[in-house]
Give the backbone structure.
Amino acid sequence: MSRICDLTGKGSVVGNNVSFSNRKTKRRFNPNLQEKKFFIPETGEWITLKVSAAALRTINKKGISACINSLIKKGHI
């Protein structure tokens, strides 16, 4: 199961843990992903998406239908 947002495409990035003595070890920063079910009123069906918290805010603002339509226009679906 990949840690990538279905709507925004956000994924893990790599950085460093920096100790008090300034030693650096590699670490991963994972996005805040949530698995959510959304109802699409046009088709009358439920879909399950793995979305980031930022994508949830976008869905709340624009609506799930508008977000999916924008992905179709961009060619991601």
Summary: The domain at 13-74 is CATH 2.30.170.40 (Ribosomal Protein L24e; Chain: T;). Helices lie at 53-62, 64-74. The CA atoms of residues 4 and 11 lie 5 Å apart. Residues 64-74 form the longest helix (11 residues).
